[in-house]
Amino acid sequence: MRRYRATHRNPTFLFPEGQTANQQHLATQPMSRSCTQKAMKHLVEECRIHKKVSPHSLRHSFATHLMEQGVSLRAIQEPLGHMCPKTTAIYPVNRNHSTEHPQSSD
User: Fold this and answer.
1) What is the distance of C-alpha 31 from the center of its chain?
2) For a Cys-Cys bond, which of 13, 18, 39, 74 suits 24, CB 3.0-4.6 Å?
3) What is the 3-state secondary structure (H, E, C) of 17-61?
4) Helix or strand or coil: residue 2?
5) Which whole-number Å values give the CA distances from 33 to 14, 65, 70, 93, 103, in the listed order?
6) 64: Cβ–Cβ under 8 A, 6 or more apart, which residues?
7) 80 closest CA partner among 99, 103, 60, 98
8) Residue 88: enclosing H or E segment and its boundaries?
9) Is a pLDDT exceeding 80 seen at residue 1?
């Protein structure tokens, strides 16, 4: 992630559209859902991660880590694009760092 961020930094988007670093730097739209999934799959394979990982896992980890650091729900709500604070509140502070979705049943 650090290598990607260092070479493809966009002032607005973590995953901007575009084929080249310059296009991504100047992008005005985020990467499409399918391209995000393909990029994530490629990075997971490249890093030899054998757990199930998805863009949603990254989003969930982002929210959970912010909550663990004491960031307010309101501050987390905005970058996640949640209209209702109740939606953000489903991300519990998970001490065992499970990648399961908070609403999944065991």
Assistant:
1) 12
2) 18
3) CCCCHHHHHHCCCECCHHHHHHHHHHHHHHCCCCCCCCHHHHHHH
4) helix
5) 13, 23, 30, 27, 22
6) 91, 92, 93, 94, 97
7) 60
8) helix 85-88
9) no
73 Cβ contact partners less than 8 Å away, ≥ 6 residues apart:
67, 85, 88, 89
Instruction: Give the pair of three-digit tokens for residue 39.
Output: 């990029």
Residue 89 pLDDT class (50, 70, 90 cuts): confident
Stated pTM of the model: 0.57
Report the distance separating Cα 49 and Cα 18, nearest Å: 26
CA–CA dist 56, 93 (Å, integer): 17
- Please name the residue that has the structure tokens 């501050």: 75
**Mean pLDDT score of the chain, rounded to an integer?**
79
